[in-house]
């Protein structure tokens, strides 16, 4: 039965989904009546249909903290890659920084509005990247694999290791600690990332360098 493959949403998730659509309608009304920054958090909304299986936006505080850490780790003139971490990318763009550059590798093609900084990315094909995206060309890679599975982490790790000069900032579930160490050599931080909506799984940050997240 094909219906067996259709994910069933709980009543709690459906209620949250209804709330989200109401909020989205209200935001769209504000966008048409007022100017807004295309790089601000929420200018591209969470895709709930996709995110029932994938990821959610970080809270504004968490996105700001991770963006600040990425800038410090990259250093002056540094290059930052955000792999499946759109809210951090948007927070970085809010800064309009001239001392760093950033790109976003993301499956959601809505981010193509950001032009050449957007790179379509499917973790199932971790090295299917543009030729001009040279290996080891980013001072830091911040990544949030879209699924809490070793397969997803392992494939995303291939992308991360291809891109980074060395520094890695990984955000994923606490249950992935052993796999994160295995595939990326990262250790858990004291800082606990928060999302704009409460998630059932505990999330943590992992790094392979001395960071400001401890």
TrEMBL record:
One biological process term in Gene Ontology: methylation
GO terms under cellular component: cytoplasm
Location(s) in or outside the cell: Cytoplasm
Domain of life of the native organism: Eukaryota
Ranges in a coiled coil: none
Assigned keywords, A-Z: Cytoplasm, Methyltransferase, Transferase
Keyword set includes Methyltransferase: yes
Molecular function GO labels: nucleic acid binding; protein-lysine N-methyltransferase activity
Catalytic activity: L-lysyl-[protein] + 3 S-adenosyl-L-methionine = N(6),N(6),N(6)-trimethyl-L-lysyl-[protein] + 3 S-adenosyl-L-homocysteine + 3 H(+)
UniProt-recorded name of the protein: EFMT1 methyltransferase
Species of origin: Urocolius indicus (Red-faced mousebird)
